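hiii, so i know i said id send this last week but things got crazy w the move. better late than never?? heres the sequnce for the chain we talked about at the cafe, plus the structure i predicted for it. fair warning i was half asleep when i ran it
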Amino acid sequence: PGDEILAAARSTNADLIVMGRRSRGRVLPGVLGSTASTVLRESPCPVLIVVDPPDAILAEWDASDSSA
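okay and structure toks below
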């Protein structure tokens, strides 16, 4: 996916790439997935990563703890 995003950005001369990132389980909020990392490292333009609000991440984490 990262390579496809980069190719689209290059072919359209994008001014900005906006990507979403969702937390998965207990992944630390500062850790990015491989797609976001690829785009950030190789992008021809600025990249904005939109993340879940901190309370949504913590709520998801708390919900997974209650079933343990």
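btw DSSP finds three helices and two strands in the chain. thought thatd interest u
miss u guys!!
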